[in-house]
Amino acid sequence: MNLAEILDQHALERPDHPAIEDGGRCVAYGELARLVRERAASLHAAGVRHGDTVALILPDSADHVIALYALARVGAIIFSL
């Protein structure tokens, strides 16, 4: 099981439970899973494939976590800076 699959399991079991709190923003597991699927689709459409190495430079935020999970869903190798 990778991180994205574990997220999907949590989203099914407790979709309304808070997953990320980022300042005043609260993202529940169900919403997080949806955002990750959408970002993974965008990454795939941009040409990111399983096994590709991707450098990620983002501030600590909900968007950073979403990007990490999306890259895991695609199967990319993440190089977080």
How would you describe the overall organization of this protein?
The chain contains three helices and four strands. The model has no long low-confidence stretch (mean pLDDT 94). The longest helix has 17 residues, at 29-45. The strands form two sheets. A two-stranded antiparallel ribbon has the order 1-2. Strands 3-4 form a two-stranded parallel ribbon. The radius of gyration is 12 Å and the shape is globular. With 81 residues, it is an alpha+beta fold. Strand 1 and strand 2 form a beta hairpin. Helices cover 51% and strands 21% of the residues. The protein has helices at residues 3-13, 29-45, 62-74; strands spanning 18-22, 25-28, 53-56, 77-80. Helix 2 crosses helix 3 (62-74).
Q: How does the SSE layout of this entry go?
A:
Layout (H helix, E strand, L loop, with lengths): L2 H11 L4 E5 L2 E4 H17 L7 E4 L5 H13 L2 E4 L1
Parallel strand pairs: 3-4
Antiparallel strand pairs: 1-2
Helix pairs in contact: 1-2, 1-3, 2-3
Portion of residues within helices: 40-55%
Biggest sheet details: 2 strands, antiparallel
Shape: globular
Strand percentage: 15-25%
Short account of what is shown:
The chain has 81 residues and is an alpha+beta fold. It has three helices and four strands, in the order αββαβαβ. Helix content is 51%, strand content 21%.
Task: Write out key terms for the chains shown.
alpha+beta; two-stranded antiparallel sheet
